[in-house]
Each structure stands twice: as C-alpha cells, then as structure tokens.
Design brief:
The chain has about 325 residues and is an alpha/beta fold. The strands form three sheets. The protein has a five-stranded mixed β-barrel with strand order 8-11-9-10-12.
C-alpha cells in the first residue's frame, strides 16, 4: 500500500468569513506559517501533504475557482521574485510555489451537493489508489517535532494497510460541530481504535447513549480531525448515494458503511486542528502556528502585551 495522492476539498464559499470570502477564496487568506513566512492557507495545507510523502494533489473547488487559484499562485511566485530580488528565502519560496503549481490540479464541483460529493469529484484523479483527504479550511499543528499530523496518519495506514481517520478527544459541548465516533482500542497500540459507529454532529444526548468510548476522560468524545487516509472503496459507496438522488451526499454516512465492510481505524493524532471558518478560528490558527514556529517569542510577546493592555482598560 502506498499513499502518494491527496485531495483537498475547498469548494465551500466560506459564508462564515463574510465579507472577505466574497472577494477572496478563504483558502487564499494569508497566515504566517511555522517557518515565519506569510503564505496562503491552501499552500500551508499542501505543504503539510508534501512533507508527509504526498506527490500529487487535487483541489476540489467551486465553479470558476480553478483559474483564480492558478492566477493567484502565478502572481505570488512573480511577486516573490520581483519584490525580493537576490534574497535566498524569496527564491526558495518561489521554488516551493512552482512545485505547488506543477503538482496540483483543480477539479470543480459543479453543484453544491455536499462534502461526500466533493470527495467523489476526485475519483478519476485518485484512479483506484488510497489517498490522503484534507479540508481546505483547517490548519494542523503537530505536537511532534519530527512528524507532521498527516505523516502520523499515513504511517499508521501504511503499517496496517487500511483506511485510517485522525481524531481528537473533544469536550462534549463542542461535539455538535464534528463527526463523532466510538470504537474498541486496538491491541497493543496506544490511541488507535477499530471504528464501530460514526454519527455526524450528534446531540449530546445521542452521544451519551451511543458514542461513549472507554478510556477517555469523562465528558470527552472522539471527533474527526479533518484528515483521513481512505481506500478507493469509498467511491463505490458514495456512488450509490449519488445514484439514489440525494441532494446532500454525506461523507460520514459513507464512512460508516466503510467501517462495516473493511478494516478501518481511528488514530488519536498528536496535534491540534484549527477550523478557520468558525468564529475566531483564523486568529486561533495564527496564534497556534506562531507559538509552534520560528515566531514563538514574537507571538508570545504580542499576546502578553495585548493581555496587559486589556487588563489596564478593565481597571480604568
């Protein structure tokens, strides 16, 4: 089993990031990465994949967005060369953007028929191979210095030769925002579960009845991390949903069927995910990347100064 291809879904318009997402794709919003350089979100996500062994990436986007992404990458590359002449870091970044442009292709989701449908749009690109699936509005920060979050996931998938989804133990008042699952601990493997049941954005009462996982802290549940390694069998399952005429093709429903038909594991990834579309999500992601990278001291100083200023205002 090899995992050399990745799919990044970026077709949603980003209504929760209004008004900026009306003029700029949310995946092109700038964020300072762990290397201290400002990059579009989609580049940071793609570099997560490349650093984990991925060789080709497909971005599933909204109608008309493919040419806009290509134009934006071309402009970014030219600006690096022209605005920062004779600087090593700019040349290195321009080379990374060139690699990105050469190894990425775009497929448009012509109708907004759900997350599962967006994944299905990449079927021909995947061509009957296992693949890494990432979200275009999530950034990931690993707690390990030598392995990215995607690398942790891919390593387990290769070891076990099966589909694996990344999960995080999540406090109960947040589970209504995530696909949530339960399963049995895999023998002799810390943080690895054989998936039994998955429910999309469950209520707390439903989770208490059906999704409790032994060994987790009280009030915590296993929620999707926004990152999966899937086998091509997922496309046959999604195709059946599409044939039934559903207008909202759910990936979670397909993953539940996958769990009942083949070996499918969940891995507690050592790291955190940051949803850019939620309230304060972009700010949280930027702080997390700053604290995890070369801008650690600068980020920490800025936070201390802001907290001190807020405290002074409160005392007046």
């Amino acid at each position: 089993m090899k995992v050399k291809k990745a799919v990044i879904t970026a077709a949603a318009r980003g209504e929760r990031l209004y008004p900026v997402a009306d003029t700029v794709q949310k995946a092109m919003l700038p964020v300072v990465d762990i290397d201290g350089l400002s990059k579009p979100v989609i580049q940071i996500i793609a570099e997560e994949a490349f650093a984990s062994g991925i060789e080709e990436i497909c971005i599933v986007c909204a109608p008309g967005d493919g040419p806009r992404y290509k134009e934006a990458f071309s402009s970014l590359r030219n600006n690096l060369i022209e605005s920062f002449k004779n600087t090593d870091w700019a040349r290195e970044e321009a080379d990374k953007v060139d690699h990105l442009r050469n190894q990425i292709q775009f497929i448009e989701q012509t109708e907004p028929l759900g997350y599962g449908h967006a994944v299905f749009c990449a079927r021909e690109f995947i061509n009957d191979e296992p693949f890494l699936l990432l979200l275009g509005d999530h950034l990931y920060v690993s707690n390990l210095t030598d392995r990215r979050c995607a690398s942790q996931l891919i390593n387990l998938a290769l070891q076990e030769e099966c589909a694996v989804s990344a999960v995080n133990p999540t406090i109960e008042h947040q589970i209504h925002r995530y696909g949530t699952l339960t399963g049995k601990h895999a023998p002799n493997q810390t943080g690895v579960y054989q998936i039994d049941k998955i429910i999309e954005k469950p209520s707390l009462s439903l989770a208490e009845l059906e999704l409790q996982t032994p060994g987790l802290r009280i009030g915590y549940y296993l929620c999707f991390f926004g990152m999966h390694v899937l086998t091509p069998a997922i496309f046959g399952i999604l195709e059946k949903q599409i044939a039934e005429g559903s207008q909202n093709i759910q990936l979670t429903t397909a993953l539940q069927e996958l769990a009942s038909t083949e070996k499918y594991l969940a891995l507690e990834v050592k790291g955190n995910r940051y949803d850019l579309s939620k309230r304060q999500g972009l700010m949280q992601a930027q702080i997390a990347l700053g604290l995890a990278g070369q801008a650690h001291d600068e980020t920490l100083t800025s936070l201390v100064e802001l907290l001190a200023e807020a405290n002074q205002r409160k005392q007046k």
